[in-house]
Each structure stands twice: as structure tokens, then as C-alpha cells.
Amino acid sequence: MSALFSPFHLGPIQLANRIVIAPMCQYSAENGEASDWHTVHLGQLALSGAGLLIIEATAVTPEGRISPGDLGLWSDATQAALARVLATARRHSPMPVAIQLSHAGRKASSRAPWDGGQLIAPGDGGWLPLAPSALPHAAGEAPPQALDTAGLARIQQAFADAAVRAQKIGIDAIELHAAHGYLLHQFLSPIATQRTDAYGGSLENRMRFPLEVFEAVRAALPVGYPVGIRLSATDWVDGGWNLEQSIAFSQALRQRGCAFIHVSSGGVSPLQKIALGPGYQLPFAEAIRTATGLPTIAVGLITEAEQAEAIVATGQADLVALARGMLYDPHWPWHAAAKLGARVQAPRQYWRSQPRELTGLFGDIRIGQR
């Protein structure tokens, strides 16, 4: 039996296999509301045969959006729009769906990638980003506004409120975004914060706000409902956040009931120097899994079926996530199953596409015509 295509439980959720569709921003919402694009995009991914689909970074407040086109979940209108999209996908796919809740912090108010991705000034349709400290992300940018105590409390509550909205519309799990240089990562990294209060300085203090957000979300949801986190294991910058601190943070999360750790890296500084290569983030995932025992998702230039199989089979990670690779090949799980001699679920409308030499790829199916 293929290890990659063996079932797995995230709390009460049973995944058919170990393939995760990682969140990937679409920059195609309207005032935070999911659009027709999301119906097409998420519907396609829900038919991919993966074990879990994680919806893109979804802002918990309007100013927490990366771009004006970011998905949001802060109001009845954004909730209703996402509920409609989810209901359409669910009519055609039983795949479990999680959502990544996020606040962009100082990386907010950015143009979409196809428009250059740079900071949008308030006078040009942007807004003033909020951050742990008034430190700009890149040289030449205007500084963000440092959050005060009231601002921290408001954002913490916004995360909890968005989680409740997600649970109400049938989302199966929550992933908090503490990676890629966004707000929760900014609090963790010495590069992005110079606070001198209880939220800055020591590792304990820098972990405080992300842990408070996790606790607020965990408390707002039913017992056993899976709440995990996406983490940048290292900043790839000397003097920044690193693997040792990531392990300490992950251990603190485990004590608070964290369901899984999704291990990525980088994003907090343009000065990062990343040693790219196949599975380049895998050692971080393996180290965190070994130190904590938490279910761990590995991501980062994992492109081949045999590569993903080896990761799970050798215990380097429990699950393997793809983002860009899944956008490029939405049927990657089908092709991986074919290579590994496994079975994958496919919608019956597509059963006739099963190659003749791969009898059983889609399971025990029966088709006929006059």
C-alpha cells in the first residue's frame, strides 16, 4: 500500500490520503467577498482527489488584507459569499475543507502580484498597515502604524470571530497564518518587532500575542475542532527567527491543543537568502515533528509522486502539501496515484477518463453505454 495514499485523521476529520492543497492567494475577492472565480477555482481543486483543501489566506479584518482583492471573513456579507462557494463545492465533493485565517500586518495594502505587488499608498486606494512596530517591510516604504493594546485586543477578537464564522458555514478546520512575514510572524521575528512591552524582546514575549490569538480561537470553537498553524520555521536571515525558536513555539502550541503544524519558511524580510532545492523546507518539518509529535505538513518544491511517497513513508512528515504545483496540475493526486499503484477518488462524471491500462485507479467503478 502507498503511504501517501493511506488515510489520516486530523482530530475528528478523516482524510482519504496524505495530500494537502496548500492555501494560495487568488487576489480575486470583491470587498472581501468570494467571487465567481472562487467558485470555479475551489470547485476544481475539490475534484482533485487530494485529502484536504485549505482555502487561501483569509483576512479577519479589512485592513488585514494583503491586497484589496483578498478574501475576507469579517462580516455577514463575507460569510454569506464564502458559504455559497463552499456549498457549491460540497454538492460535488466530499473533500474536507480547512481555511487559513490571516492578518497581513505591515505587508498589507499591496498590489496584486500581476500589478507588481508593491505597497499601495492611502492616497492611491490603499490604507495604513498595522504592525507590532513602526518598521517598514522594505527600504523606501512608509512605516506601518504600531499596534497599541486596544488594537491587539481587537485583532485577537477578530481572529476568534472569523473562526466562528468559518465553523458555522461548515469549514472543517482552521489554520492560523503565522508564516511568510504576516502579522503573527512579525510578532515572532526579531526582525519585525522592536517592542519593549510584554510583546517584545525575549522569545517568551514575542510568542505571547500569537499564542493569545491561538488560545482565543481555540476557546471560541467546539472541543475537538481542529485548529492548527502555518509557521515559517526560519527567516533565512542572520539574527532572525530560526528553527530552535520554531520548536519552542510549536511545543507551546501543543500544550494549548494545536492539531497540526504546517511548516514553511521565510517572508519576513527582503534580505532573506533561501537555499532553494527539492524539498528544501523538509528538514524543518521533520525536526518539528520529531520534537513535538504533532501532525506535521511539509511543503516546498515537493513536485514528484515518488518524492512525496518517501516523505510520508520515512516519517519525515505526516502530510505533504502542494500549492503552485496543484495550480499547474489540478489532477496531481490522480497522476501520483497512477505512478504509485494507488487508488484515488474521482467524480463519476470523469470516470470514463480512467486510462485503459490503469484499471482500478478510480476504485471499483462500473460504467456502461448503449
Please describe what this structure looks like.
With 370 residues, the chain is α/β, with parallel strands linked by helices. It is 32% helix and 14% strand. It has helices at 36-46, 76-92, 149-168, 183-188, 203-220, 243-255, 282-292, 305-313, 324-328, 332-340; strands at residues 8-10, 13-15, 19-21, 52-59, 97-102, 130-131, 145-146, 173-178, 227-232, 261-264, 296-299, 319-322. Strand 9, helix 6 (243-255) and strand 10 form a beta-alpha-beta unit. Helix 3 packs parallel to helix 5 (203-220), helix 5 (203-220) packs parallel to helix 6 (243-255) and helix 6 (243-255) crosses helix 7. It is globular and about 70 Å long. The model has no long low-confidence stretch (mean pLDDT 97).
What is the gist of this entry?
The protein is α/β, with parallel strands linked by helices. Helices cover 32% and strands 14% of the residues.
Topology:
Elements: E1 8-10, E2 13-15, E3 19-21, H1 36-46, E4 52-59, H2 76-92, E5 97-102, E6 130-131, E7 145-146, H3 149-168, E8 173-178, H4 183-188, H5 203-220, E9 227-232, H6 243-255, E10 261-264, H7 282-292, E11 296-299, H8 305-313, E12 319-322, H9 324-328, H10 332-340
Parallel strand pairs: 3-4, 3-12, 4-5, 5-8, 6-7, 8-9, 9-10, 10-11, 11-12
Antiparallel strand pairs: 1-2
Helix pairs in contact: 1-2, 3-5, 5-6, 6-7
